[in-house]
Design brief:
By secondary structure, this protein is mostly helical. 48% of the residues lie in helices and 8% in strands. The protein has a two-stranded antiparallel sheet with strand order 1-2. The structure holds heme C. Heme C binds next to helix 3, helix 5, strand 1 and strand 2. The site of heme C has 28 residues, from helix 3, helix 5, strand 1 and strand 2.
Length: 184
Amino acid sequence: MRVLFLSVFLVLAACGAPSDEVEAPAQTEILAKPITALPAPVKKPSLSPQANGKKFYKKCIACHLGDGAGVPGAFPSLNSGMDVLASTEEGRTYLVLVIYNGLRGTLETGNGTYRGTMVRQAGGKSPADVADVLNHILNDFYPDKDLQAFSAEEVKSINETHGRLRGDKVLALRPKVGGSKAGE
Ligand code: HEC
């Protein structure tokens, strides 16, 4: 009987014994401390929309040339007709989608017919970048025209509404009126 009492006592004593769990909260506190000591990421100085558009346009120069004149029979000009396209909702949608998806098929413009392919140009670019390059074209090649600038919101919404398209589908969305110097 005495042995039984003793063992019951030992079991109870073991349960009540202080364990090192008591120390646990202090440790958790240390781990959960917010990390505030990391250095802020180094940001590149941001370019003005104008400088950013000019920089992005360097991608286009190989084909459409610095002044947007293009190469007759090979690459359509961007210094004629884009103002007409930028003046209607359909034309603006088309211009944004060309940058995001590329273009393929028989393109008839005011200064020639083109049967080429342009690959998408917007890889790694933000809607603001796409707006900047389109505004670069409008401002630099049509300085005398009072054209509505593209905004990042407009570009984003057009791109999201249409999603990814094949180049020939983009061509099918081109308004027949635009791109023609003769039609102005
Ligand atoms: C490797 C050559 C190449 C590059 C680089 C290129 N394009 Fe093109 N682009 C073309 C070709 C080719 C077409 C015509 C495609 C066709 O015939 O269907 C075209 C068509 C276009 C059109 C449609 C013109 C119209 O009258 O409908 C626009 C707008 C355009 N490009 C803008 C750009 C912009 C902006 C860039 C740079 C971000 C760019 N392109 C880069 C080759 C290129």
